Amino acid sequence: MILGIDLGGTRIKAGVLTEEGKLRDSFIVPTQADEGAEKVLKNLSEIIERAKEKQSIKAIGLAVASPLDPETGVLYNPPNLPFGTFNIKEYLEASCKLPVVIENDANAFVLGEWWKGAGRGSKVLLGITLGTGIGGGLIVDGDIWHGAHGIGGEFGHITIQKDGPLCNCGRRGCFEAMASSKFLAETYQRLCMTQETLTPKEIYEKAIKGDTRAIEAFNILARNIAVGLSSLCNALDPDTVLIGGGLANAGMLLLEQVRMHFDPLLLPGIRGKVKLTLAQLKDTAAVFGVAYKAIKAMGR
Ligand SMILES: [Zn+2]
Questions:
Q1: Cα 265 to chain centroid, rounded
Q2: What is the pLDDT of residues 142-152, one digit of tens each?
Q3: How far is the CA of 62 from the centre of ligand 1 (A)?
Q4: Is 100 in a helix, a strand, or coil?
Q5: Helix (H, G, I), strand (E, B) or coil at 143
Q6: Is the pTM of this model over 0.90?
Q7: CATH number assigned to the domain covering 2-108+283-299
Q8: What does each C-alpha distance from 297 to 14, 19, 110, 248, 252 come to in angstroms?
Q9: CATH code for 120-279?
């Protein structure tokens, strides 16, 4: 059995999986990031102990919402977790006496979808998570593309519009700044000329009921998503592109609009050949992905 853990800023999700990818048990606890690093590590250790009591765990895969070095296991100042530069792999291996592999959560999400979700059978799989930010990952022949410095797959920060809106990274016009839930809310606000801020879910519900401004806000969002994704596809030539994250809950409404804009922006050589789809595993994708990585590491 393998324990896959997804350490996010709000929740810690974990699943006990067989090597074939059958989910035998799952746990979820609050991260309690605002209570400091020690508390987060205690919550993490408790999940591991609970899993070890019930199952024979051989290895742990840990996905973290953080820039990190997957080889050494060092986290670099995660924005929503109370760690600075911290070697979480060393810490866990010493405390739980099991081999630990770590991975960025967005990479783990795409790997999980490749293993057991919407990306099964894909040779080159590109995935993005759309939410408050944009995460991403690229899987080539079953391996995560990390790049030369470990930031391969940071698709949220390709430039969509020079001098566009300010991004969380301090640059302007990034994909993330122009296709996030905040962008959707601001676009709807602008179209309605109101100060009221609606959630993506509320805008979605209005769109479903036929509110033309809500539909238009989704259409502008979809066009930006298509611009970002088509640029990535023209450079990287994936066979499958999948969309996950909170905004993907808008499902077919969003996917159909993205599809409409996406294909004409592709180079002729790949037009009509890239499968665009929604993620399937939802909340558990990163758990599956990082468990798969741990299984592979054991086999080496
Ligand atoms: Zn950026």
A1: 24
A2: 999 999 988 89
A3: 25
A4: strand
A5: strand
A6: yes
A7: 3.30.420.40
A8: 19, 12, 18, 31, 37
A9: 3.30.420.40
